[in-house]
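The instructor's notes for this session suggest beginning with a concrete chain rather than abstract definitions. Hand out the sequence below and ask the class to guess, before any prediction is shown, which regions might be ordered.
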Amino acid sequence: MKKFNRILLKLSGESLMGEQGYGIDTKRLNEYAAQIKEVQQMGVQISIVIGGGNIFRGLSGAGKGFDRVKGDQMGMCATVINSLALSSALGAAGVKSRVLTAIRMEPIGEFYSKWKAIEAMERGEVAIISCGTGSPYFTTDTGSSLRGIEIEADVMLKGTRVDGVYTADPEKDPTATKFSDISYDEVLQRGLRVMDITATAMCKENNLPIYVFNMDIVGNLKKVIEGEDIGTFVHA
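After discussion, reveal the predicted structure:
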């Protein structure tokens, strides 16, 4: 039994580094592809947004002297590289996918529209949506919120290296405790780093629930789809 019929899966670029510290770890990439295949075979329609932090992050680039707009555009290109890598891994696993870009990049990917993404999912393809919103000053978190709302996803699944939302950063604070369930308002009031404020506010305004879980543990994506309580559910 599946809990969700159509999902927007947000993957972090940093997670694609695996143990390498930079770039794309083929082992991690193939693990992601296998997990995605597993839930697609359950009949779930899947769209994916991947960050680019394993290659270049616009905001940190701006801190090193890059023009912010150009830095963000470089970050968008990084998301395309990751999207192509995931598309290749899915193809090797026997899963059809379609790379859509928020900035025109034919023939690398098709120019994104809501209807192209939905048509691809309804054909049984995974829609991989890259370049964030296509505009600077917006993160891929906000791009995920926007795309999840547009494609009428049941939920945004935010796959991270942490198993949910905590009172503080569990990697820095050993006393941090995990929420199994939390409202958008509490996330915003507490200043919790689920996603950036713009992304969380968009999900709240459009009633798109968020589920935060650890994607780096093989099998977790299927557990989330089946309704197992392994992460944190953020909702109204």
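Then share the key points. The mean pLDDT is 95. The longest helix spans residues 68-92.
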